[in-house]
Amino acid sequence: MDSKTTFLTNELPRRILLYSQDLDGEGTFSDVNLSTPDHLDGFMSTIHKLSFNYESKDKKDTKRLNLMVKVMKGSDEFREASMGKTQFTNEIYIYTKVLPVFQEMLDTTGSGLVGDWCPKVYYGEAGHFPTYSDQYETILVLEDISPFGYQAGPRLDLEEDHLRLMARHIASFHACTYAMRIRKDKQLKALIEGIAPLDFVSGDKTFTSYDVLLRLGATRLYKYLDAHPELLDNDGFRQDIENMRRHYEATPIRLMQDLLREDDVFSVILHGDYNRNNVLFRVDTNGKPIGLKMFDFQENRFASPVIDLAFFMYMSMPEDLRDRCWDKVVLEYHTALLDSLVAILKVPKEDTLLDPYRLEPFLEHFKRHAMYGVIITLHFLPWMMCPEEECEQLSYHFARDVHSKELAHWTMVCGGKEVDERLVGVLRHASRKGYFDIVK
């Protein structure tokens, strides 16, 4: 048994008992089982399933705990290029510091809101664990919610019910930041300052992996449009593409950094990577989604809420659904946001305290930041649409060398024409909605 397995099966269960308020630190554990399912393996993390029998010291509480253990993977060089230390430490921070404060506010205000956004946290710590490895590590232990019926949604195209549920779910999470701001809660400043900056560009430094991936995604799109100029079939769309190429063709990451700019009204503590990959749905007997849990807060930031919205909407809505439901999903989010604020603040919907967050200013803000979802989609959608064997190539070369010719090659061809056409559809939609106005 290697040192990591020994830590996970012997030392971690004890740490969990000491950490969790629902468990007795003097209790005992037995019959430990550890597995590492291939389908849970991520680009930057390894997910283990850990289960064991727990018994309190007084023997009055006994149960089988089914848990998920998330740890960083990769060499120090890989973690540096992907800013893994910052991302995973921030994730631990959200689970262990931010969520408890939000939950306490919901409870003490008598809001009636459950705040049940995520799986239950059993342990979260960042630092050095000498008995595990000689690297800086983050270890996060969450409840395994699959036995309660939570499962992944469709791999790519969500249905309207999924989208509306996702919008409501993230709205209640965002509302906590706004409620704390309106209440002038001094804890908010400390919570925000506790998030380590995850900038795309900082001075002369760029977020290496994103710099490469965003540029490759944009290059693929421009190459396709150059080969098919007939697709630029109206003056507005053609001008929007020309403007974006003129300002950001070689550096789309700088546009992304611009879209992270903070303001005193709409900036919130974000999920940051809110998409189908990072949520699980619970469905009723008819298959309709009725519950949702989100996870993977690695890219959380303090920035525009549109980052959380535009990403999952562009990623998971094919053209017909965008045409039919885009505005409905945005309105669903805004309605849930105001309803949550009313519940937390105990004010009527007409109260002037809510004026900064009315629909009209929100839509203006959405329009100024929706390009974030567009640029992320140019990079990520091909990875999600391509066949499994191509995705494996992308994952392998991304982990091995983000600058490699092989990664560039697979990025340009994965998924073929179907991907290219869908990406053009995303750009057309953004152009029609006026989202390109920020790059004029």
From TrEMBL:
SMART domains: CHK. Residues 140-343 form the CHK kinase-like domain. InterPro entries: CHK_kinase-like (IPR015897), EcKL (IPR004119), Kinase-like_dom_sf (IPR011009). Gene3D superfamilies: 3.90.1200.10. It comes from the Eukaryota. This is CHK domain-containing protein. The lineage of its organism: Eukaryota, Metazoa, Ecdysozoa, Arthropoda, Hexapoda.
